[in-house]
Amino acid sequence: MSGCAQEGCDDDASVDGPAGGTRDSAGPRQTIVAFPNGPLLVRGDFDIVDPDGNQLRRSRKTVALCRCGASTLKPYCDGSHKMINFRTEPEN
Amino acid sequence: MKQPQPRGPVSSLLLDILTGPEQSSSDVPAPAAALAGAVRDALAATSDFAFDEDLQLTLFCLFELHYSGIDGASGHWEWNPDLIAARRLLEHAYEAQLHSAVTLPELPAPTSAGVAAGLFELTGADGGPSMSKYVAKQATEEQIREFLIQKSIYTLKEADPHTWAIPRLTGRAKAAMVEIQADEYGGGAPDRMHSALFAQSMRGVGLDDGYGHYVDDVPAITLASSNLMSMFGLNRRLRGAIVGHLASYEMTSSLANRMYARGFRRLGYNDAVAAYFDEHVEADAVHEQIAGRDLAGGLVEAEPELLADVFFGAAAAVVVDTWMTAHILDAWNADASSLYSAAAVSA
Ligand code: FES
C-alpha cells in the first residue's frame, strides 16, 4: 500500500493542481460514499483544507467525514452518530 | 515469545514437548503423540473451557507457534501432526461451547446493506457492564495498568489474526480487508502501526512492551479472547466468522476508545499514552463502515452460505469480551486484582 498516511498526505505528485483535482492519467478518481445513518467516506486523491487553503490534520488515506454534526473530531466522524441515533433518508 | 509457565498437566506436557527435538528417530515414539490423549482427558474433566487455565494456555501456545514462535521451540513444531491433532480437539471444544453460548439474531437478507445493518444492530445492543465507562470514570492507577496488561496479549499483535483471512477472501471483501489492515499497520509508517502505538502506551505507564511479556499474568479468559480470533483466522472454513469478528471489533471501538482516552487523561497521562486510544476513535469510525458494507457484506454477497458464520463470529466476539469484562470488573469491584498473578502490577 502507498505510504500516504502521514500528516497532510501531500506526497502525490500526480495530483493536478493544488486543490486535489483530477489525476494526470485516467486512473480512478475520488469517491464519496454516503453511508446510511453514518458518515461520508472519502477515498482517492484529495486534500482537506480550511477556507484559506491550509491543510487540515489528516492521519489516514481514506477518511470518514461527519455529517451528523455530533462528532468531537470534526470534520472527521468519531462514531457519535450512533449515540444520537442519526438517521439519513434512504439513498437511491 | 518467551516460554510461559505451565498451569496444569496439559500445558506442562506441551511445554516439555516443545523444548525437545521435533522428531527423534522413527523407532522411538515421539512424546508429542501423548498430547492428544492428555487433551481428551482434560476436556472430559473441564467444566468451562473458556475459563480453563491449563487448556487455554495450551491452545494459546499451539497458536503462538504460527505467530512469533516460542523461545526454545524448533520452528518445525508448527506443522507437527500430533500438535495439530491436539489443537483440533481444543478448537472443536471451544467452537462447541461458543455455539451453545451464542444466540444468533434473526439473519438479514444476504445483501451488503442487510448485513451491515444487522451487524450494527447486533453490536449496538447493550452488552452489560461497560469496561470503557469504568476506565473513563473510576479506574485507579493500578487498575489502568492492569487494563493495559490484559489488553497487551492481543494488542501487541493487533490485526494479525484477521490478516490470516486475506488469501481466503476475493474481490470486494478482500479489497476491504486490505484497506482496513493497511491502516491498522500504519499505512506504511512503522511507528503508526496500532501495535506500536499500544507499545508506546505501555511504556508510558511504566510497563514492559515486550511481545508476550505478560502472558503469565493474564487469566484464561484473556487468553481465550485471543484464542478466539486465532481459531477463526487460522481455519479457512471459519473465514465468515473471522470477518464477522473484525466487523464486531470495529463497530464497538470508536466510542469505547474515546472513553479509554478520557480515563488515561483523568489520571494525568499525556497525549503519547492516550495516542493509541485517540487513533482508534477516528480510525475505527472509518473501518466500521468498510467492515460492515464491503468486508462482511461483500463476503456474504460473494458467498451467501457464509451469512450465519459472519453473524456467529460477530456474536462470539461480543460474548467472549463480555465474559472477559465481567471477570475483570468483578475483581475490581471486589478490590482485587484481575490478573492471574498479581506480581506484575505491584512491580
Ligand atoms: S457522522 Fe459519525 S459522528 Fe457524525
Q: How would you characterize the overall build of this protein?
A:
The complex is a heterodimer of chains A (92) and B (347). Chain A has a single domain, classed as CDGSH iron-sulfur domain, mitoNEET-type (Ribosomal Protein L9, domain 1, 3-Layer(aba) Sandwich). Chain A is globular, with a radius of gyration of 14 Å. Chain A has a three-stranded antiparallel sheet, with no helix packed on it. Chain A is built from one helix and three strands. Chain A starts with 30 loop residues before the first strand and ends in a 9-residue tail after the last helix. Chain A is low in regular secondary structure and 92 residues long. With 347 residues, chain B is an all-alpha fold. Chain B folds into two domains: 9-101; 112-346, Heme Oxygenase, Chain A. In chain B, 64% of the residues lie in helices and 0% in strands. In chain B, helix 9 packs antiparallel against helix 14 and helix 12 (239-251) packs across helix 14 (271-302). The longest helix of chain B has 32 residues, at 271-302. Chain B is globular and about 50 Å long. Chain B starts with 8 loop residues before the first helix and ends with a helix. The model of chain B is unreliable at 342-347 (pLDDT under 50). Classes of the chains: A little secondary structure (92), B mainly alpha (347). The interface between A and B is medium-sized, with 28 and 28 residues. FE2/S2 (inorganic) cluster is lined by residues 38-39, 66-68, 70-71, 77-81 of chain A.
